[in-house]
Write a structure and sequence with these properties.
Two copies of one chain form a homodimer. Helices cover 35% and strands 25% of the residues of chain A. With 444 residues, chain A is of the alpha/beta class. In chain A, strands 9, 12, 15, 16, 17, 18 and 19 form a seven-stranded mixed beta sheet that branches. A six-stranded parallel beta sheet of chain A has the order 3-2-1-4-5-6, with helices on both faces. In chain A, strands 8-11-10-7-13-14 form a six-stranded mixed beta sheet. Strand 14 of chain A pairs antiparallel with strand 14 of chain B, so a sheet runs across the interface.
Chain lengths: 444, 444
């Protein structure tokens, strides 16, 4: 029987999860594949500890270089995370003829375009299902399951930390800072939460999905990114009264005259707090769950939901990639769908749509002195910019303090909205503590 | 460049949809695969009509035999539907060395176990993603994306007609009969709706999913099946007041001491109206949408949502299968995941768990004469069978007519419940218009 030999770089939680599946589900894997997948070696900086798993028979090393160059390894699983030394190890593994599986979204988002050509040239596969949506096989769905479609939009709740915080804020009427502390205590948020709460992690994942959807190159640096740290409990209540829930989805869409025939001329990519309709599928995604709504010209709306992180769900996706590679092993790798869903030579440079040209509906929360004529002066500026209003709400009244005024607008471009905002902030009786959110309807 | 030649049997709505993708998305398909997929021929009984599509260059025939035996066809798409002659054409196509893609759940559910060995022996692929969940790539997710998992449960809303009717009944407070008529007028239900509303279609699909999940053989005939035709508007209201929505999911679970190590000893399969918690993901699936909740021992809960029927979504799944086959073409078919997720030789006969041994929580709606002691006599019988109650509700009071009494129970076996029910129906002042529904919590 064919045997596929695997080496793991990094025995953190996900590394242990991946090792656990390879050991505990061996019989299942063999029944599925008709081949054996064997964990041969694993590298970690600290080996003198209890892994909570019987790793006897597995060669342990504190030098990852051993694994990426070893003669007896067919597939390297990279679970070190971050840019370096992960990138160097992956490049070395590919150069030594090893297939690579990784859960490292930062690596793929930033260095994917260096890695894919190397793999392509050598007939090797790079699997990274675990990098986006954790255990949810959303990239397999996008790349293979929806392959007959021109993808029209992607909306993904891709960061469990942010979704956990937003859910808690809503359920408990609590403010961002308090919930963040709780999330940190529970291990749902890092000590330095910037990467998650400022939307960077979501932007990494979105940039990968967008490139896979539209056949374009990954452009993480060009994703418009705003986080959730300025949202208040009052905003969540205001949104709810208007029929919306605040989420942090990443959104990607193709633009161009001829999108339906593969003519994607520009790619829209943005991550920001967004009002989603209470009865939409994405609004139902709570706690640390992730979900991706993908729409195609034939399939219409589809959604993929599950755990976006965690040892076991993430390891599930890692080993699914290993099993895909094992299916094609040793000579059938070229018969798998290419890693980014398009043959490497057909993947093109597509410019990113400038944020100023993006069309959105807006939620604006101004803080104003409660004087006659303030709302009239704001709406006059909006009207001057041809921005029409869907709703205006001013709940509190206070003689001396600024009070919030919330407005929902119809669609306009970001550029036009920003121009209007600059003029509004120059008006009297409006302070500069302005919150701009955007709102989205999905049709599902 | 490699070329894959396709023939379609049946130019109904889905056949036209599939042809449309092959023609309109040609450029996209080639960019994805690096190969061309060409529609060579199509068969239909009536050719002298407007297909709404330019089929020039496609060989049209009214004899499907031509296509399944033709030398210039690599993949046959069977979209005739039903058992025969679809089965005969598929067998002939396989015998002539052609890969087969079909949207025909009845065919796979009933004759799959005849077809898979033929395909396996000849190194051919059978694709049937479109047979379950329409456009949703849920079988690819189950078979490949979750391949590292022991599957612990499947709950699928798999019939759009039933879900449309149940959604309408709830939204409009309307009774089953009126909504069915409306659904028929709108084309959401057939003139003879039995296949859909009695749960047979769902059972077809569930039996396929269960076998794919547990590595067992397809046993459609052994699925416990009840439809939605006895549900009233009052039941929907009563369920809602208790915190539930009534859906028609198919449910499948593995049983046995050693399930987590592939030791599935029995398979539970059932289709019946079910109370699902209002805040669960499945409860949010409305109208004609489908969704499948799949849980695995590593991935935990995942859900797949989208259009379960219709020309374009179904065609999306059909062509995704064709593209999978094209990826491996001509010599890499053995490198794709096997059609049922396990190599054919590892698929085993697993007995179906008898319905009497299935454990459920129950919704019971008795019609009783409003006499003192009636509820006491019912609950005494339940207590005697060690069935404990979660809730009891009697809203209406009427001196002469029977009034509904609704009870929610905790878990018990179907066998025990049926024994209790027989005794209860023999009590005075209870008529035999009893509705038994079951209730399910999902954890997601």
């Amino acid at each position: 029987m064919n045997e596929i030999r695997v080496g793991i770089l990094g025995l953190g939680t996900i590394g242990i999860g991946a090792a656990r599946i390879l050991i505990e589900q061996q019989q299942l894997i063999t029944r599925r594949l008709g081949k054996q997948v064997r964990l041969v070696a694993a590298a970690d900086r600290i080996l003198d500890r209890d892994f909570g798993l019987d790793l006897s028979g597995v060669r342990l090393t504190d030098d990852a270089s051993d694994i990426v160059t070893a003669d007896d390894i067919d597939v390297v699983i990279e679970l070190i995370g971050g840019y370096e030394p992960a990138r160097t190890f992956v490049v070395t593994a590919l150069e030594h003829g090893k297939h690579v599986v990784t859960a490292n979204k930062a690596l793929i988002a930033k260095h994917g375009e260096e890695l894919f050509p190397i793999a392509d040239e050598k007939g090797l596969q790079i699997g990274f299902e675990a990098a986006v949506g954790g255990g949810i096989p959303c990239m397999k769905a996008l790349r293979e399951g929806l392959a007959a479609n021109t993808i029209l939009s992607i909306h993904g709740i891709l960061n469990g930390t942010c979704n956990f915080i937003l859910t808690k804020m809503e359920n408990e009427g609590a403010d961002y800072g308090d919930v963040l502390k709780e999330a940190q205590a529970l291990g749902y948020a890092e000590a330095d939460p910037t990467f998650d709460v400022e939307g960077i992690d979501t932007a990494h994942k979105l940039s990968i999905l967008a490139a896979m959807a539209f056949g374009s190159k990954i452009k993480f640096d060009e994703v418009f990114t705003e986080g959730i740290s300025r949202i208040t409990a009052a905003d969540i209540v205001a949104a709810q009264e208007l029929g919306y829930r605040i989420k942090l989805p990443g959104t990607a869409k193709p633009h161009g005259e001829n999108v339906s025939h593969g003519g994607c001329e520009k790619v829209e990519m943005r991550v920001h707090p967004t009002l989603v309709p209470l009865d939409s599928q994405l609004a139902q995604v709570s706690d640390s769950y992730n979900a991706v709504l993908i729409s195609g010209d034939f399939v219409e709306h589809t959604m993929y939901f599950g755990r976006g992180a965690g040892e076991r769900p993430t390891a599930s996706a890692v080993i699914a990639d290993v099993m895909d590679i094992a299916s094609g092993f040793p000579d059938g790798i070229r018969h798998l769908a290419p890693p980014m869903g398009f043959v490497q030579s057909a993947r093109t440079e597509v410019p990113t749509l400038p944020m100023a040209d993006v069309e959105c509906e807006y939620y604006l929360r101004f803080m104003v002195q409660d004087e006659p004529g303030v709302i009239a002066s704001i709406t006059a500026v909006l009207a001057d910019h041809r921005i029409s209003l869907e709703a205006v709400s001013q709940k509190e009244r206070h003689k001396t303090q600024a009070v919030p005024v919330v407005m929902l607008t119809h669609e306009t471009t970001e550029g036009n909205m920003q121009a209007a905002i600059s003029r509004i902030l120059a008006l009297p009786n409006i302070n500069d503590d302005l919150l701009i959110l955007r709102k989205e309807s999905f049709g599902a």
